[in-house]
């Protein structure tokens, strides 16, 4: 165990190396013995993955080995399967003691692969950065060789993927099927409508109010719930992501999971009923839109509180997290976006300047101490 001013450092275990967990590990590695447990050897910006599918070289900046930004931390490439008292057990058999625990397992990310036989392996991405980059190269070749593409799901992932393909490959026939009555129900009607109009203006065929029977796919023919038969060379399933909390239901924290599978946290981001365990990111029950930049905000509050506690500070001085207002920006290709800020909606190059060009990759790399 490390030494800090003659005193042994506290051990902080972070489970989940996504947007929030990676930032916690980075910020604490000089103040504690940090152990990051992640199923992959690398960190990836999830909102950059869709750009990487149409431009594989983009992933070289958005996919980063954990060791690159965590020179003073220990990384265990495995999954956590159990929490018992002050220990975490991994699937690889590591039993790790902790003074403080941060759970940041978020959602299981959308898979860029379309072959069902590889879905299980790639739900959280392949284990190494090299494999992940190869994955994007393979998907890009598949997109280039296809004449028609079906996107299933009209949430932010489906809309952004359709936009990326429509902008970079305008000659492709792109269809998007969504079971809801409008696209991206998590934002307001005006923003949904603007996104729909943008897609249709780029010749994307949008079918609302129908789902696709994934069990009846045969030779590129897809049956919708409305009985319509669609043809496509390839498809991408962009339906809802699963909460990454199922592993907690058999652990010491099983009573801290709500009926929706979310981890219940207090205003200081500590798991309710546990003074030395924090929860951040999409997995929490914080009433706000689940977005990556908010996971980063959670991380910074958790870091501040952990440093206070590790220094023996008074709990009454802990930082309080306030849920964010309803703000969302959905990229529409490389230059445009649709944005909702409170009740104001805008679309075009102005909101696109905020996100769509670099997709916050440079900013996030800076947060991790890397060159943009």
Short description:
This protein has 372 residues and is α/β, with parallel strands linked by helices. The chain has helices at 19-28, 49-54, 59-62, 66-69, 119-122, 129-145, 156-168, 189-201, 292-310, 349-355, 361-367; strands at residues 3-4, 7-8, 11-15, 33-38, 42-44, 63-65, 74-77, 80-84, 87-90, 95-97, 100-103, 148-152, 173-178, 205-208, 221-223, 229-231, 234-237, 277-279, 327-332, 336-341, 344-348.
Explain what this protein looks like in three dimensions:
The protein is α/β, with parallel strands linked by helices. The protein has helices at about 20-30, 50-55, 60, 65-70, 120, 130-145, 155-170, 190-200, 290-310, 350-355, 360-365, and strands spanning about 5, 5-10, 10-15, 35-40, 40-45, 65, 75, 80-85, 85-90, 95, 100-105, 150, 175-180, 205-210, 220-225, 230, 235, 275-280, 325-330, 335-340, 345-350. The protein has a 5-stranded parallel sheet, covered by helices on one side. Strand 12, helix 7 and strand 13 form a beta-alpha-beta unit. The radius of gyration is 21 Å and the shape is globular.
């Amino acid at each position: 165990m490390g030494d800090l001013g003659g005193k042994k450092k506290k051990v902080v275990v972070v489970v989940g190396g996504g947007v929030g967990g990676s930032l916690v590990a980075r910020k604490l590695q000089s103040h504690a013995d940090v152990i990051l447990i992640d199923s992959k050897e690398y960190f990836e910006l999830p909102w950059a993955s869709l750009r990487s599918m149409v431009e594989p070289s983009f992933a070289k900046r958005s996919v980063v080995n954990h060791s690159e930004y965590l020179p003073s931390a220990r990384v265990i490439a495995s999954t956590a399967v159990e929490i018992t008292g002050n220990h975490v057990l991994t699937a690889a058999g590591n039993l790790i003691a902790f003074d403080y625990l941060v759970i940041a397992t978020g959602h299981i990310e959308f898979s860029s692969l379309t072959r069902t036989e590889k879905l299980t392996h790639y739900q959280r991405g392949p284990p190494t950065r090299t494999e992940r980059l190869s994955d994007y190269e393979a998907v890009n070749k598949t997109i280039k060789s296809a004449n028609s593409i079906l996107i299933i799901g009209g949430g932010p992932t489906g809309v952004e993927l359709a936009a990326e393909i429509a902008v970079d490959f305008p000659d492709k026939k792109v269809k998007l099927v969504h079971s809801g009555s409008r696209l991206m129900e998590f934002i307001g009607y005006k923003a949904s409508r603007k996104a729909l109009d943008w897609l249709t203006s780029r010749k994307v065929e949008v079918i609302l109010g129908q789902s696709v029977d994934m069990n009846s796919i045969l030779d590129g023919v897809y049956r919708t719930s409305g009985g319509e038969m669609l043809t496509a060379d390839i498809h991408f399933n962009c339906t809802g992501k699963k909460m990454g909390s199922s592993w907690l239901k058999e652990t010491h924290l099983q009573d801290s999971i709500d009926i929706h599978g979310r981890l219940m946290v207090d205003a200081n981001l500590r798991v309710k009923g546990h003074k030395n365990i924090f929860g951040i990111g999409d997995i929490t029950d914080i009433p706000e839109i689940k977005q990556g930049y908010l996971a980063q905000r959670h991380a910074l509050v958790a870091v501040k509180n952990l440093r206070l506690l590790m220094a023996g500070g008074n709990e009454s001085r802990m930082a309080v997290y306030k849920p964010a207002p309803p703000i969302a920006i959905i990229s529409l290709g490389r230059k445009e976006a649709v944005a909702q800020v409170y009740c104001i909606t805008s679309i075009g190059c102005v909101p696109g300047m905020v996100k769509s060009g670099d997709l916050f990759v440079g900013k996030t790399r800076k947060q991790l101490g890397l060159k943009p």
